[in-house]
């Protein structure tokens, strides 16, 4: 018989199981070193100095505005209840409740941020008439309300306005109860009973925000990291859901997943790991904070096995609240390519920050879009006055993504478009005006004959036809699409009001941006010297140096026709980088994920090489003060496991994208 002493002595040591956040185990449980804490303090100081936090007075004003909106919608519902003949008791009990979501709910809003709000009302108060007509009229009569703009036909119907100077986006959801309690739990699935799809989408913003805050291990670290990366995305030109990049909820979900993978990391570590993870992510494998739930309510959830449309998504980022949806369905192959390039840029800079070679300011240097391409599409939008322009611009901007897709479809993907999510205004025009721009370049690695041309007349005509369907068109609302060379860019797109000479000195990071995208330099070698020599050819860019600094914005009559794009756009090799930054990463990143992803098939995208791995490990090995227990091999292994788990669920869902129709290239 075994003694109790012998039995107790043979027991293995008790190990505490690692807590799992999300759908996989963490990549690393390592906490910060002293150097990581110092870098986090420096990062937070930078964010404060950049003006990303609102003052106490501004915060109090927002709360006051929300209270006043709550009073307005409550009176509105009571008024409608009385008009519909309900009892006095019903009128007294009638109520509507205001919820917030988006950046305000997550605690990452800035001084100029809008407040995303949702009004939840009873079943007998509808959206079509009561919200967009009765409440609209009530708001229009208040002097505190300005710039009131209803958007009833949006994917998520919204009413936009400013209340006492605070931008508000107000949604409405009518739920299937007669009296809305003040303590309504919007996370409960019962609020979805007997409601339509637009109502589900309206409710989803609040439900998703609540779930995100529940699923991250440290809310404070999550908020600081998200605030940082949203600012970075805006500086680098990849913050805009409507243009085909990522919006606020998309960035929040990406950051939340990294927080789950590194639950004990501080913000400086999380920013670095963010870029390390997503430079190696194999899209279209989805990013998920939790398992996708199916419910008896029967709403469609993201599932490429059942839904053919879900199979065409390029960058699935799945919301964590039922019904789970892809929040990034607007992303195209072109915008994904641009974002992967920017992720790689961020990864390179973060490695140098961890080596104490550069400061945080280097990460946030603005993207030099107008130095990055030789050819652009310019979309001019004009209207009779500011109110008409606001409505007209919103309509056109929401369809710019379609122009990108049309051009790439009609050129069989050989002509790539880079839409830039910033608007520019020509103040010299007597009417309301704004303009958007798209960079144009040949698909990387494609060989075409010199002088070949792309005929995009059909694409532009199709785009103009779709724009002409605007229901609220008024005289004076016009749109013009022009193809302009870099030399012909209007002066109002440059921040200093003039064009700088191309021989002006750039910072190393700005040189990296310019040279990595300058598709006007055709070089197939890895020699930076040869690359520059080609640039000095008689018909190259050097001829611009003799031009005067200032020039007037070209009239529309001077703009180049958008109908035929010359194929002098060349397929530039990425080997002609000459900046210090690119010399540093040349060994570890000769084959970039970002430069290959646009030429992959839908099946190949999931099998991209994990470029940037050597870079991630270098940054940690050379800096003993930084916590680097999460080596690149661990990251690769963890991502392989995560992708494998996801593929077991969705392996049958992804198929090759639709075949693009061939077009005839016109000879010059």
Topology of helices and strands:
Elements: H1 4-9, H2 34-49, H3 56-83, H4 88-93, E1 97-101, H5 102-106, E2 115-121, H6 127-140, E3 145-151, E4 158-163, E5 166-174, H7 197-215, H8 219-235, H9 248-261, H10 267-280, H11 333-354, E6 375-383, H12 386-397, H13 400-410, E7 415-419, E8 432-442, E9 453-455, H14 457-467, E10 478-485, H15 508-517, H16 528-535, E11 564-566, H17 580-585, H18 593-596, H19 602-605, H20 613-621, H21 632-650
Helix pairs in contact: 3-6, 7-9, 8-9, 8-10, 9-10, 10-11, 11-20, 13-14
| Total DSSP helices | 21
- Overall 3D shape: globular
Question: Mean of residue pLDDT?
Answer: 78
Roughly how much helix do the residues carry, as a percent range? 25-40%
The radius of gyration over CA amounts to 27 Å
Q: Which stretches of 5+ consecutive residues score pLDDT under 50?
A: 1-9, 501-509, 514-629, 649-668
Going by helix content, strand content and strand pairing, the class is alpha+beta
Major pleated sheet: 5 strands, mixed
Rounded to the nearest angstrom, the distance between the terminal CA atoms is: 97 Å
Going across the biggest sheet, name each strand in turn.
1-2-5-4-3
Strand content: 5-15%
Would you count the extended β strands for me? Answer: 11
